[in-house]
Design brief:
Rieske Iron-sulfur Protein; 7-stranded antiparallel β-sheet; globular; binds fe (ii) ion; 15% helix; 2 domains; 17 strands; Naphthalene 1,2-dioxygenase Alpha Subunit, Chain A, domain 1; binds FE2/S2 (inorganic) cluster; single chain; 334 residues
């Protein structure tokens, strides 16, 4: 037994369940239709409070709620003015990048206001009818862009995505580890065999091909995965986006879509079946439905920093090494 495994039989009482900080990445905040013009909303995600607002022109901002002046909470009594948020206490205004735009009673604006944003603001993008934010523990600029997902962009030729949402009691690293844990697909999900898989890591991407092209997936950082399930020339797409809420809770959301096929055709039936398999409701129950099985494990497990693995396990250690780069800047290292 190696040194790192010497403690395995001492018990896990003192192990934290989820020792991770929030990893850097693009994260889903809300669907665009849920935030109206001039609306301000308090949101708790990424293990802290934020204020989310949409300006008069439609521009979205997501900032620290506590005013840099005297600390009022702008999500309680604040107002949208143009594309700025205005603090209720002394009416200082900030734009969606955190620049101070107005101090209505100051003869001389503090010089720092001209030099840099003074309110922490996250980069925000709206894509596929969704609001996304970029999070980095030190506030650094995005390290990668949101990808193109043609199935969500070409709405004319694809069915309106079917959406799902699940709350779970674990961290995003643990959820994403499922994507490399091929053995659990047989034992927890009830697949007939452990699927053959090819994979590669190229930070911030992880690519996987399971069952010889049946499932082809790509992870774009911790907050977004695109999986395509194909059968007899028909492909259905599962876009999976997870938002860390607190250190040990996350919300998993998914959008499922495929090309529009005439009702009753063989293609339409295959597409429907693929979507059912993705959601976990396939006939014959060779898929058990991830919410009923993965969650039982995720919501109660503890993270083993030095797991005891065997030769049939997927590339768990490689994955963890790859994932640790998303914590750069957070001071966390395994
Ligand atoms: S505390 Fe916000 S303007 Fe004074
Ligand atoms: Fe799973």
């Amino acid at each position: 037994m190696s040194d790192s495994h010497a403690n395995l039989n001492k018990g896990a009482k003192d192990l934290p369940r989820c020792p991770f900080p929030v990893p850097m990445g693009w994260y889903f905040v809300d669907y665009s239709e849920n935030l109206a013009k001039e609306e301000i909303r308090n949101v708790n995600l990424l293990d802290q409070e934020w204020v989310l607002f949409r300006g008069e022109t439609g521009k979205v901002g997501m900032t620290d709620p506590y005013c840099p002046h005297l600390g009022a909470h702008m999500g309680h009594g604040g107002k949208v003015c143009g594309d700025n948020i205005r603090c209720p206490f002394h009416h200082w205004q900030f734009d969606s990048e955190g620049w101070n735009k107005d101090i209505p009673y100051a003869k001389v604006t503090p010089p720092i206001c001209k030099k840099q944003p003074i309110l922490r603001a996250l980069p925000v993008e709206e894509k596929w009818g969704m609001i996304w934010c970029w999070y980095h523990p030190k506030g650094e600029a995005p390290k990668w862009e949101l990808p193109s997902v043609p199935e969500l962009e070409d709405t004319e030729n694809h069915v309106k995505p079917h959406r799902g949402e699940w709350e779970t009691g674990t961290a995003v690293q643990e959820i994403a580890e499922n994507g490399v844990d091929f053995a659990h697909l047989k034992f927890l999900h009830g697949e007939k065999e452990i699927p053959p898989a090819e994979y590669s890591f190229d930070w911030p991407h992880y690519d996987v091909n399971m069952n010889n092209g049946y499932i082809v997936g790509r992870m774009h950082g911790p907050g977004l995965n695109v999986y395509r399930f194909s059968h007899e020339g028909v492909t259905a797409t599962m876009v999976n986006y997870t938002t860390p809420m607190t250190a040990d809770s996350s919300v998993i959301r998914m959008s499922f879509t495929h090309k529009k096929y005439e009702e009753g055709t063989k293609e339409a039936m295959i597409a429907q079946h693929l979507v059912q398999h993705m959601v976990g409701e396939a006939d014959g129950k060779d898929s058990a439905g991830f919410e009923s099985v993965d969650f039982i494990v995720w919501n109660h497990k503890k993270y083993r920093p030095n797991p005891l693995l065997c030769d049939g396990d997927g590339p768990i250690i490689q994955y963890r090494k790859f994932f640790s780069k998303f914590y750069e800047g957070s001071g966390y290292a395994e």
